[in-house]
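User: For a reading group we're discussing how well predicted structures match intuition. Take GCN5 family acetyltransferase. Before you show the prediction, I'll give you the sequence so everyone sees exactly what went in.
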Amino acid sequence: MPIRPVTADELPLLQDIERAAGAPFRDLGMAAVADDEPPAPDVLERYRREGRAWVAVDDADAPVAYLVCEPVDGALHVEQVSVRPDAARRGVGRALLAYAADRAREEGLAGLTLTTFTQVPWNAPYYARLGFRVLEEAELTPGLRKIRAHERELGLDRWPRVCMRLPDGARPASPRP
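Assistant: Thanks. Here is the predicted 3D structure of GCN5 family acetyltransferase, as structure tokens, for the group to look at:
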């Protein structure tokens, strides 16, 4: 599936993808996550303007998934990666992560980082299968600590969360079942 920078007129579509991708959290008893509003258009526009927002598109060039990220303490931090449910389980998220890993390498950044839920099958277990590893508390950089503190303020720690890293130079592996 092709990946390209998001265009300004596609920002509302990213919000739609985010809402659709959040819906399955409801089945896990995480209605607050499912009901959480996607990033505001001005936030998404900032990522787009900085060249840090990419979409995976279908044959009609319509976005089916997106990833936004920013440098944090020498790594490229994945702020959000979301895949429309009807495009899930096809390697779209992995392809976006691989694209981001390539961009990190081109910029001389030390791999990818992200924060995620530990007990959601398509979160930490999935990222581990791709080659991300959980960072111990002592390994968290100041920027990652700040991100985790903000997540706690938002109430996301009602469910266990971790920071993970894909090592510098690595690309996400094909997930094993």
